[in-house]
# Entry
Amino acid sequence: MIRPEHTTSMAQTGILKSSLAKKYAMAASGLFLCLFLVGHLAGNLQLFMAPSDGGRQFNEYAKFMTTFPAVKLLSYLTYFAVLFHFADGIVLSLQNRKARPVRYAMERPSTNAGWSSRHMMLLGTIVLVFLVTHMQNFWWQMHFGEVAMVDYDGVLVKDLYTVVVAFFNPELNSFALPAIGLYLLGQFALGFHLWHGFSSGFQSMGLRHPRYTKWIVGLGKAFSVVVPVLFSSIVVFMYFTQA
Amino acid sequence: MDFTLKIWRQEGPQEEGRMETYPVTGITGDMSFLEMMDVLNDQLIRDGQDPVAFDHDCREGICGMCSMFINGEAHGPNRKTTTCQLHMRSFKDGETIYIEPWRASAFPVVKDLAVDRSAFDRIIQVGGYVSVNSSGNPIDANAIPVPKEDADAAFNAATCIGCGACVATCKNASAMLFVSAKVSQLALLPQGQPERMSRVQRMVDQMDKEGFGNCTNTGACEVECPKGISLDNIARMNRDYLKSQVTGE
Amino acid sequence: MTEMPKHSVALDAKIPEGPLADKWKNHKNSIRLVNPANKRLIDVIVVGTGLAGSSAAASLAEMGYNVKAFCFQDSPRRAHSIAAQGGINAAKNYQNDGDSVYRLFYDTIKGGDYRSREANVYRLAEVSANIIDQCVSQGVPFARDYGGLLDNRSFGGVQVSRTFYAKGQTGQQLLLGAYSALSRQISKGKVTMYNRHELMDVVVVDGKARGIIARNLVTGEVERHGAHAVVLCSGGYGNVFYLSTNAMGSNVSAAWKAHKKGAYMANPSYTQIHPTCIPVSGHYQSKLTLMSESLRNDGRIWVPNDQSDVEALRNGSMRPTDIPEERRDYYLERRYPAFGNLVPRDVASRAAKERCDAGFGVNEAGEAVFLDYASAIERYGRTEANVKGIEAPSAEKIRELGEAVVRAKYGNLFQMYEQITADNPYKTPMRIYPAVHYTMGGLWVDYNLQTTVPGLYACGEANFSDHGANRLGASALMQGLADGYFVLPYTIGEYLADDIRTGAIPTDTPEFEAAEQGVKDRIGFLLGNGGKTPVDDFHRRLGRIMWNECGMSRNEKGLNQAIADIQSLREEFEQDVRVPGRPDRFNPELDKAGRVSDLMELGELMCKDALERQESCGGHFREEYQTPEGEALRDDVGHAHVSAWAHTGVPAEATHHKEALAFENVELKTRSYK
# Structure
């Protein structure tokens, strides 16, 4: 007999609480963070120019990013997006575990789904761990640490470039090599996270179309390779130019 | 052919279950998987043991009743195939085969390999229909033209047999493919428009209440679906639900 | 005890007066109505949730009755109507090919070999158009053409295109439509749905059906359910042959319990044997798979005409494609030049049996013929090459083009064949053989679909009324939905109008008590009798008897033998069946034991009915009654009647009642396909 009462009430309903709402939030925060990555990468790429201008452009960019009001607002949004993306991910994962209390004795998940799509929580956690150390190393230094000032045409600017250089130099920082290792691991995890996450975000928002979806998927794959590779190459570049 | 079967045995919904091992012999490649199970049960009955309970009915891949998780995959290793359409020639002689029920908190085990999928019925009951009474004089069928493309897409969504392989195979035990197939079928047709927004809200809300997991877009459901229901349907449902919430319809 | 009519009662079909075309309209206008407030006081039980059951339950609930619906499957959506492939007929005349209600009526009467009731069939044709309108408004995705309008296909034995379809899954789409209408009423609380419940008995109080005993198949609980009327939509009983295209769970129990409580069984021996099914491959085969009738449009059916080739095929020393044209016997084209491979189902099936009986069957068991697409592939390939302007195409190219055309038309069927047999039907001819598919017989009902037990109704395949001795393709879906949506919801009012003051039916009465006790005793007996043979064993043996003696052709000696064999099989079953497990658990073997027990009794009655019908008509072929050319010989003087059987205790001793069939609007003719 069909029972009229409902078996469980794990999930709630409505725009804030339904399973789909959580997915929209996950997708929106994730895709927003992709935009952030582009901005961040644009800044970091200027480090390639540093050997010729002594890091001036990089430092001026860093100042702009930390002081311009609109960008500041955007940065608060980014902090929020990171925390939210993580918390929402935890909630979704816990619910998903609860939805299958008894596991299969025999599973062959690789026959029907990609590896990264099945390990988003793991990949996300690695990225988060990296992010915490990364923030401590640079963000904290920039905002609250003791950073020397440089004078560019009468304007005093924090010399973040020197902090970066020092950080990746094994002679100045005994943790430089492990830090580089962690950085590369973080980028690796980020790449795999994006490999699934980028196009998945579009799917969650319902943005799928027979004509355009293959472009979105292609763009996502390209993004997930290019962005981490560029971030990593800067670190490698810094290391070798210093060493 | 001979096989070693590892089968989930569970007396009833409240009892604990466990995997048990059974040998079967004299199987031919032309037997369907369920006929192989018939052979096993025939042996068990003659030996005075309890036969393995499993759901099955039409045995031609359309009723959606059969539901076995075979060697780590819903409905076994072949694509676009239900358990009843799977033949033993797809296995190697001497192979060990794991046979488990669909596993999801929303699909409690009834006995052994049979599960209770009435959660699917309840999801349909809250809105998986067009609210029209039967009457001797409705409007003529051809008064509602439907572009062939939409009619075909609606048909493709409507071929879902409600077997639950999508839930069984999803690492999150999500029912999105099933729910979105019905939502899509009606969203694609003019007849479904008046209730389109309220339908998607009610069906998604009921899906959540039943305790299915959340979709993480791994796409496993589409791969394992015996009828090849497309992820397009999930995207359409995501779109419609978002729209229904934003517009407040 | 309930009444069991033992003496002959005149069967009154209650056909309304007036001209054929006005009967239904006039009847509807004169049926007594139950006002909406009173409908809320009336309970109706619907057993089965296929096309007839789902549509009847939904429609009755929409009208205001309180409905309890039962199905043995885990969901009402899984009833076997879902497996119907081809389509549904309706006299819409969308193709402007001269179709009309009268033509559909005429084709159905003729197709049924003049053994159905004119008034019922005319009504069926009349409401057929409404069905399509109703289904489309529910969102059933029928096939459409590029203009967005509904498409039609042709089906066997008729000269118009009136079949609406949804690829090869028309039954599924129609059933899901009816299921959604049912679901809507469940959500409103107007239908209470009982999944995984089996009818165990019909309860008759003061001569009227007042409820059922049902068993919860999960908990084993035996339950009493009272109602003012009971509607059986429990489908057909093809599984009496063990191997059939029916679902494994399809059974006769609901109808048979009703029969034992006084409902007459009509024409039980009328069985449709579908010519194109995948042949039996081994002892443990549980089920036969249909290959759609549409395949006969392009495929050619043949066997070798040389016995040595047959031997070579069987021992594998020769492939079918090695046999040259002159050593092939396209026996349908030879015997029936006018219709060729497109003769009706009963004729095609018998012809295949005739060749196999003569020793020309092409598989190891000697029970298969070839359905060959080679010439269709060649023909389509040449046409394609012309269309594409390819000059002097190679044989290879023609093949490739032809296969593409065939794949577009029949791809899913070819794939299904390959999945089951592991043979590639594009390269080698398919092996096919007839298989039991549908039963035209069923519970006798009058024009109102009421059985001989007042308050007990039967719809869809469970009744006997519309298809005579042979059903036309795409008419089963039409009948199920016609009964459920448009006939029964009206006609049942005539009976229920008397029940508005009755009040709820109490279930603590002696009649319910006795019925429940009987059910529990039977369950106890089956579980406790200590035999050693599994149920399936008996079912297989029953099937073999029925297939050999009461299948595609029947004779007096064989039928008498079959009755004796079934009786001893029944006795052995009582002595030796082993049913494992507990009564209070999910126990599919127990469910099966009850069903097979009823099927054995039914089988006996079917043989009795086949014995009595001393003529050949439609699906019923008696070897004693054939023309010199081996065609069916009907006896319109002695047998233009419905045989309705009343239970007396032993099926073979059932009392025979006749309902004479009057043909006032069509002329009785001999069917010829030469």
Q: What stands out?
A: Chain B has eight helices and seven strands.
